[in-house]
Amino acid sequence: MEWPKRQLRSLIRFVAEYWRWLLGLLVICLVAAAAMAAVAAVALNGRHAEQERERRLRRIANLDRVDAMTGAEFKELTAELLRRDGFCSVLVVGGARGRGADILATCPDGRDIAVQYKRQKKKATPGQVRGFIGALHVTYSDCVGVFITSSTFTEQAMDEAAGRLLLIDRDRLARWMDGDPLSL
To answer: Which positions ≥6 away from 178 have C-beta within 8 Å?
Structure first.
């Protein structure tokens, strides 16, 4: 029994001599554990918010709902889809403030985009496309242009936009709402 007593006395002497150092180490470990728990909670909360956004988008993002939406609701849906796909600084503008764009955002790769949408039953026309191209040249010259319609585009509108705008028609909108990310 001599061996354990000697070890116990050595341990007591060590603790008595280095108690401040040991207490500091314990405090550091507790602070690190608390910080890791906080980071985990923030990550979990962020994931929960992302899942809730996905559930909300699934509820509202279908073409029948789009057809019944107001223009403002469609604009908000588009903004949420952009956020889902990793776009940041998503700013809903529109009206007189928008000066030809409804939404401004930054792509995940850092490029800026200007979005115009037309929630309408008739086909998007070349005049609408030209109007947006003009707004891009005058006001948003550093932006990639994205034109979204809940309908389709006339052949002339597609010709007008070729090489100048990304066009998203009803079919592409449905795929985007269903989770196919927007790629420029």
So the answer is: 61
